[in-house]
Amino acid sequence: MQSASVHRFETRAVHGGHTKPIAEGAMVSPIFQSTTYAQNSIGDSIQHTYSRASNPTVARLEEAIASLDQRQHAICFATGMSASTALFFALLQSGDELICSDVVYGGTTRLIEEVLQPLGIEVRFIDTSDATALRRSISKRTKLVFVESPANPTLKIADIGALAEVTKRAGTLLAVDNTFLTPCLQNCRELGADIALYSTTKYFDGHNVTVGGALTLDDAQLAKKLRRLLKTMGLNQKPFEAWLTLQGIQTLPLRIHQQSRTALELASWLEGLPAIAHVFYPGLPSHFQFSLASKQQEAGGGIIAFELKSGFAGARSLVSSVQLITLAENLGATQSIVTHPASMTHADLNPHDGARIGITPGLIRLSVGLESFDDLKADLAFCLLNLSDSISATGEVTL
Amino acid sequence: MSLRTRIVQRPGCRQDLSGATSTPIYQTATFAFSENSSSARFDYSRSGNPTRRILEEKVADLESAVGCLSYGSGMSALAAIFALVPLGGRLVVSRDLYGGSFRLLSDLKERNLANVVFIDTRDLEEVSRALSSQTDLLLIESPSNPLHQVTDIRQVSDICRRRDCLLACDNSIMSPWLQRPLELGADLVIESATKFLGGHGDVTAGIVGWRAQEIGDRLAFAHNALGQALGPMDAWFLLRGLETLAVRIDAQQKSAKVIAEALSKNQDVRELHFVGLPNHPGYELHQSQAEGAGAVLSFEVEDESIAKNVLSFTRLFATTVSFGSTKSTISLPHGMSHGSIPKHLKGKLGPPNNLLRISIGLEDPEDLMEDLAQALERSTTNLGANLR
User: Fold this and answer.
1) Cys-Cys with B184: which of A196, A351, B124, B153 at CB 3.0–4.6 Å?
2) Closest Cα of chain A to B368: distance in Å?
3) Which of B242, B262, B293 is the last residue of a domain?
């Protein structure tokens, strides 16, 4: 039985779009670790032929993600970056134009600058927190507007509804990277976006055990084109990764709501500390887009960014002295992770460009896990109190 | 560090050479000896495996145990502790117990390996009387499955200590997040890790934790000698499932309470067995030794045929054995999990035939309640009667 729309979000997360087992009555989907599928005769039409093109376990994950995002189609990829690759290649050719948020994941910028631009695709990076900037920039050649909201790592918000109005009027497509919030906290379809992109590595998996990506959309023609590209370029997700992601999704609502609650508590506490110049968190009333965030998001999410008064020296000291929180890339996992974007996730940006959009040497990104608030606070407090003693506010070291 | 945090983070994670934030899966049978040492820390995965070792250290920490071993199933763990009883020794067991345990105990008795006595461990005098004959092991479960009978673990452990009898507590229905029997005085804690510890219905495993190393050594000897160990892949699945233990159970028991309250008002429900409601006779005792009522409960309907109808009419609740998973399940214990109790004993042991057990998962509680309500309604109306 399909439960795509009859049941509430938590229920769909657990049942993955179905309420009945698919094979042997097994309550957990089998892992179809199979390369190929037997055919009875030439031209025999079977659902799956070769696992690069499609696989039953991956298909099950696609149904689950489509059900959560209330979309007609979800397509899974080996990584978040391969989902971006498929999306860009499906929609953009030489001479076409892509408009992209100025603050996006560093890997997206690298793909655009090192792969798309050399192919003759024109790209404009604009501040998508301002819908009028898009109205000014959009042209007949714009084939795709690609937005991250909240933006990684500065947590700037784009008004998805306002941007969707502009793209609809211009007859082009709006894609939103919804990795930070997932359909649990932000429904891009209801807000008017045509496509949502996910790095399922983050909250969907949520346990730091896989890499994966997904696109969700309603347009059947585009979905067909994306699937053809997936098969042609070999961007497919693997059965075991898909199965682990399916198991992870079952606790997605629990995890992200809990992480969001702890993040709000931590952000409020961090805001009052002398070592901190600024806290960026969409759930805080001090966030410059708080009312927009409250309108389009269910909650602030599990990611906080903050700027240290002591700049790079402070950042280096903080990330090397945390005990409980791990210094690593990735986010959205059960364990809390701290990242220094300027030298890690966004290291390929030149420092001047980085600083202009807020990715400064003193910026810290914190992905809040499922540990208790008190333990996380104690871990950060120990580092931040040491920080204000040992480094003067003027002792800034630049990268 | 709080229990909530220790559930998420495993001890020693920074010691890995690679720094991997997820535990490596050491899917290897043997380990090479290093050149300058004749003994490696690990030599053969039946005896010891790094992935399994990390799991066992983590579970021992959560259960407040001195040490812990993992087994291929909950039954394998139970068999391991029954083996602590010497040949011809005496075992005393709670009367409301899992059918698989009954099957295993019957086998011990039939082969004259041990004497087995079933008692009501809620009654402390009955416990004292039973232990007045030399007894080697008392096995309890509190609250019991499926009837939610509450045993006073502190008092029973005092009696056991005076009589020099080992007290083992099956904690599968609670998990260490809600109850830690070793802190209450038990000598051994057993869990079917298939249930809440794993929590995703994707692995079968059992664990045993102990408070005295002498007992741990005896268990460890058999674990290696008999080859009872859990495989590395299953150990890894458990580690991964464990990370969300606190958030899962918090949500599941919150829903269970809402559903229990609704069931208590449903006219088709005869008797409700759920220790989370203040009118339950064991409510206060349970509150004094555990931090929540959990997410498994049972209720009686008019008769067996109505119970069977309810099973067939639920849509979100899958009809299946086991409990503690992300997905809600419903079962008729009399014929399913407790089916191995022979007919002539079913009046005295095990659940009645009109009893339904439900395990609440992570679905939206309103969806679950709507599903149960419609199933109960259909089962008792004419439509249901025709199907009967």
Assistant:
1) B153
2) 9
3) B242
